[in-house]
Write a sequence for this structure.
């Protein structure tokens, strides 16, 4: 199979800007019937997250940042076992049925999965990945607005049904001016993007049916023979998922948006979002009503899409290598889903001039906001976005990125770092590759390179308190051990966690950890001080970080300590929104 050709460079940028302009015209205005989604639904993991999402949606609607006349909902997962984004999809279908009865038969629905706790990007943990700030727009765009903008053309070319997407990815594409992506076929329809085989090992990969057309176009409608979920390179080759490029020279494709892929030795088509028609959604709902309660994690991509297409086989149901936690029910549930969906068609919209970006980890977040010239150009990302800060240093193609913040002209932020929703005083210096979120630093402070600093407002016993999580951006918060004797294998800012506890004068006991005592990690370690003011909170947490850096003692014994897990339980969303609003009003006043 030949590689896709692409129009001249800049077509992705032009197509993206057009969608952003169109969405901007709809913000704060009532939309006409069929012009936009009938329903936009966001999933939440628990009631605390549900409340946080509802509060933020309410603020956005009040400030006219979203199109009006649309039903915005937050659907929370049932209490109990984690059910994955597949389980959340089933739960959302039941919520739609309860709210609308048969009426949702005729609706176009956008379902955004945002129910995780964002342990790999913890500055999104408190308020949600779908409300992650992006460095452009006035007021600042968050992932929700970007999703709505990038999908602006979909509802008017879609049969009633549900479009399923995730909160932490960005799909950009360019097609002909007179072309539209249509979701009008029975069954499921997914978008496909040309990607490297390496990327294919961490995504879903389509094995497409043979195609007669020799000329590659930006937009192609194809049939999928089989869907592979996070396959090995060997598996991709075995299943004929790998496409091979033409024999071309680089000069032939100078300036194209997808040059690197066109010239790659081999490539595959990977997934992003998918649509299911109303009949398929009804079938899944009936299945969910029949089983009653889910006790295992279902993947909307791995467990739904792998059952589709004429080449689907039942073997994947027994493969648990990509599963974080294997439950006894999982294999049985997968087989039942396979039996339910077997024979359903999987249509593929191949977007040969498209890009897929994931912003779900600290590494990806820093790279795309400070170093990635492609995304910066395509989306119009800014180094200083709705902020007060006079100068941004640049080094080796990297800049710092300041979002919705007020920084004193005498403070310094090194290239590769991101500051969001914060105030920094004159004697603050931020090292390279740091993330500072929701913080207020007025005292003299030198943040070492690779620092992560994120402050949360808390409501404890009716009183407003603050706590600031600090660690290294490369620390793995999800890594867990089973016993107290094993916590020496955990690392905080690259230092043995046991050594850190000694520096902070903390005892190794079960009380050091919150929640499930069989999973001990930085996520549920009670090490972060609770303070009465935001600035004190940041200063105190920075002292514990500096103590680890300098190997000097800093006792935490006299503080009330919380884990990140507990911070999320006590979080005061209203106060965090108020703090952001105060910064907003001050920036608006000073830049008027």
């Amino acid at each position: 199979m030949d590689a896709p050709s692409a129009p001249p460079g800049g077509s992705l940028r032009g197509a993206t800007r057009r969608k952003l302009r169109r969405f901007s015209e709809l913000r704060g205005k009532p939309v006409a019937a069929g012009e936009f989604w009938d329903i936009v639904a966001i999933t939440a993991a628990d009631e605390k997250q549900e409340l946080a999402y509802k509060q933020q949606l309410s603020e956005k609607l009040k400030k006219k940042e979203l199109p009006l006349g649309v039903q915005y909902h937050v659907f929370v997962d049932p209490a109990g076992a984690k059910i994955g984004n597949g389980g959340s999809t089933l739960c959302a279908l039941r919520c739609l049925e309860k709210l609308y009865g048969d009426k949702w038969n005729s609706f176009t629905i956008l379902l955004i999965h945002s129910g995780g706790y964002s342990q790999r990007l913890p500055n999104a943990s408190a308020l949600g990945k779908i409300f992650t700030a992006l460095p452009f727009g006035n007021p600042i765009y968050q992932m929700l607005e970007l999703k709505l903008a990038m999908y602006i053309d979909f509802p008017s070319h879609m049969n009633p049904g549900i479009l399923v997407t995730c909160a932490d990815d960005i799909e950009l594409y360019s097609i002909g001016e007179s072309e539209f992506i249509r979701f009008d076929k029975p069954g499921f329809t997914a978008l496909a993007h040309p990607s490297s085989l390496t990327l294919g090992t961490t995504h879903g990969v389509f094995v497409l049916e043979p195609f007669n057309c020799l000329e590659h176009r930006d937009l192609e409608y194809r049939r999928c023979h089989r869907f592979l979920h996070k396959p090995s390179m060997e598996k991709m080759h075995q299943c004929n998922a790998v496409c091979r490029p033409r024999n071309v020279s680089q000069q032939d494709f100078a300036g194209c948006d997808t040059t690197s892929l066109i010239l790659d030795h081999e490539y595959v088509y990977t997934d992003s979002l998918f649509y299911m028609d109303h009949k398929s959604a009804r079938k899944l709902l009936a299945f969910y009503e029949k089983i009653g309660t889910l006790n295992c994690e279902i993947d909307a991509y791995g467990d739904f899409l792998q059952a589709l297409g004429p080449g689907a086989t039942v073997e994947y149901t027994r493969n648990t290598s990509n599963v974080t936690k294997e439950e006894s029910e999982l294999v049985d549930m997968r087989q039942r889903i396979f039996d339910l969906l077997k024979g359903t068609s999987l249509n593929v919209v191949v977007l040969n001039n498209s890009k897929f970006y994931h912003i779900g980890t600290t590494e990806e977040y820093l790279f795309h906001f400070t170093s990635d010239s492609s995304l910066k150009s395509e989306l119009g990302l800014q180094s200083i976005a709705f902020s007060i800060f006079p100068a941004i240093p640049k080094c080796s193609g990297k800049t710092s990125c300041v979002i919705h913040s007020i920084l004193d002209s005498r403070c310094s932020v090194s290239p590769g770092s991101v500051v969001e929703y914060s105030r920094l005083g004159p004697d603050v210096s931020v090292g390279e590759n740091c993330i500072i979120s929701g913080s207020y630093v007025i005292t003299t402070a030198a943040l070492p390179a690779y620092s992560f600093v994120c402050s949360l407002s808390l409501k404890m016993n009716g009183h407003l308190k603050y706590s600031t999580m600090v660690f290294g951006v490369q620390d793995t918060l999800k890594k867990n051990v089973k016993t107290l004797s094993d916590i020496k294998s955990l690392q905080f800012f690259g230092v043995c966690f046991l050594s850190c506890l000694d520096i902070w004068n903390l005892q190794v006991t079960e009380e050091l950890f919150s929640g499930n005592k069989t999973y001990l990690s930085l996520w549920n370690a009670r090490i972060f001080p609770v303070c009465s003011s935001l600035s004190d909170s940041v200063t105190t947490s920075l002292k514990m970080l500096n103590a680890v850096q300098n190997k000097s003692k800093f006792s935490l014994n006299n503080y009330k300590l919380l884990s990140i897990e507990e911070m999320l339980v006590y979080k005061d969303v209203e106060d965090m929104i108020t703090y952001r609003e105060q910064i907003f009003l001050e920036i608006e006043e000073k830049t008027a």
Remarks:
- The radius of gyration is 24 Å.
- The mean pLDDT is 92.
- The longest helix spans residues 573-591.
- The longest strand covers residues 219-229.
